[in-house]
Design goal:
The structure is a homotetramer. The first copy, chain A, is an all-alpha fold. Chain A contains nine helices and no strands. The structure holds a DNA duplex.
DNA sequence: AGATAAGCGAGACGGTACGTCTTGTCTTCTT
DNA sequence: AAGAAGACAAGACGTACCGTCTCGCTTATCT
């Protein structure tokens, strides 16, 4: 039944935004970001490579930084969306190992570029925190709380501290590159950290 | 053999580089960096504020990035030069607390700006590592090895891992600012990390 | 059939070049050139005075020299466009007198500045020749040939030589300023030169 | 009398000014001027090529323009110093032919560069007039007056006008290069000009 | 169907920073 | 004292990039 105009979305007048172009832009921006770095990519360069005008870019994003930021997270979306629901130290361990792997990958490098590139833009920095850091913290927090409930971790365990103790060293190596960020490191890190919070 | 001939620098010809101007430039650059941020400072602005010509700037530094980099470390030199020689867990603890304090200070903020600002310049990044990160690691390593020798820490302790476990979480909070980097955090971090490596 | 397809200029895409700004630039440049001289005018100065960005300047002109060159001829266009069609010695005389008057005027001074300012730029020098020197020669040649046909000048008269003999001394005084370039001089010059080519 | 030491020239203290260096500088400057053009030569370049410091250059010359100016005339001195004393139209003719030859030579080109290069410097322009233009005028004037006295030229001949009529067309072609400045032209020019002033 | 509204590519534009260059002066040590 | 070496201030030059604007065309909805 078509009904008397069941106005759900009151579709705006005028030519609709080309959704396909948006994807094209972000994909192109990601590639440029990956190949040339954050500062080396130019807004006009993105526009040209995506077959789009500069004006279109700035109609949807406020700045070059924002475009690259979005490009990064649009690309990471399928990678970052980990359904890692569950509980227990085994899962916590697996999660950390995966995170370490991600950071060491090409995608991780691109993300580091974005993180450093937007550092002076308060707004984007907060968004980065929310869309990446806090999201992962939340997942970790859930797993940790489950582990506490299961009696695997001491009841006095402070999830926030534990998270920082697990993530921090990974992050440290990731950004500074003073030492390799490999599986072995992640494993030893996990074991040593957990030792302090484990029951017995 | 002509004698020990303790390498006397054969003073270069011509008008000597104005050491005073150099200091003035770096000091000015530091202030601008502190007040405006990494990207917002311009090379000509530095020159003007320091009462120096642009050419002089680029005679001694290759780029704006390099100037700000040097400005940062020139300013930090007296702060970073910690004679923390000694041994024992007490010293290790004190060192970490001080580091945490430094990172949370205004100087720490400026350093974060430089760290993120130069991230895409391989050369400067390596220099940052050498002049800051590795230097601190060396101090920590010495203290840790002393502690092992004293029997305070297990003989199996891997200094590198321990350093990353202590520094990482600090660094994590410092750069991301998702949670406060205060004394309490540093203390709890230290206690929990050390727990895993302590004898008994 | 749509017609003989009278070449319609297929308006180029994109934002059209601001013709008004171009005029503004050239007019401003002319004024600066007149007031300060060729070397004393700066490209940024022109830009600023014309309310235009440096980039716009260099989008349309290759160098400062070219801008000033164009500015000069754009300004002279209405002055230089003399319809002096006709024939006979009277007209030739009038033409020379007018030329002398022009060279001695403020416009003439500006032109001298341009002529000397671009002397080392082969391309501009050739353009100067074509847009000024050769154009005037052509007019003179036509008048001279008419005069020959009318029997006022000997049939053996070499127009090129005659032109140089009339223009040269004017040019000589104009550029060097060793002696005044006034009407009396122009008249006497004309009379003496013509004497050699006149019939009888 | 104070002793043997018959102090005639009280030789000034300190290192004596190197007269030889002056020549070296001007010679070098001339070569650079010839090879690269007026604007393309830099003051430091001259200094370096002459094995002299910039300061030395500016101790004796006020500006780059002045150096090149001097360099030009120092080089031309032997060429320009023509003993053409004498009288009669034959000598006048020979003189004009020689002048034409000089202007068409490499030296002439260099001189054109200087003439145009210093056009905006009032002082140098006047010096150019005095050292070159007026000097030649004087010679020409003397020859012309002799010719009048000899009855070869009309007594009513205005030497100034005659000089401009002979020099102007040469100068015209020299600087603009719209037509060749060869011997044939000089001859025809001379014959036609003289025709108007010759007796009978 | 025509009017209206917005999206869009092309590319010019103002603003501003960059890093290089050149001129003429100044400072230090050497001859 | 004169000079070479070369650092310096001043400031112009031409390039690059950012984000905005203008133009004409296209794609949609609304009347």
């Amino acid at each position: 039944m078509k009904g008397p105009k069941t106005k759900i979305a009151p579709r705006p007048r005028g030519r609709p935004r080309s959704e396909q172009a948006q994807q094209e832009i972000l994909e192109t921006a990601y590639k440029l970001l990956r190949d040339k770095g954050f500062n080396a990519v130019g807004s006009h360069e993105i526009a040209k490579a995506a077959g789009v005008s500069s004006a279109t870019l700035y109609r949807w994003w406020k700045s070059k930084e924002e475009i690259l930021f979005d490009a990064c997270f649009e690309h990471m979306k399928p990678i970052l969306a980990i359904p890692e629901t569950g509980s227990g130290l085994t899962r916590l361990r697996r999660y950390i190992l995966r995170a370490s792997e991600f950071l060491a990958s090409e995608e991780g490098t691109v993300m580091a570029r974005v993180l450093t590139g937007i550092h002076e833009d308060q707004r984007l920095r907060r968004m980065f925190l929310e869309r990446y850091v806090n999201q992962r913290r939340q997942i970790l927090r859930a797993i940790i709380e489950d582990s506490i409930a299961l009696g695997e971790l001491k009841p006095t365990t402070d999830p926030e501290l534990l998270i920082d103790m697990l993530s921090g060293p990974l992050f440290f190596r990731w950004l500074q590159g003073h030492a390799p960020l490999d599986k072995g490191f992640a494993k030893r890190l996990f074991d040593n950290v957990i030792h302090a919070f484990q029951t017995q």
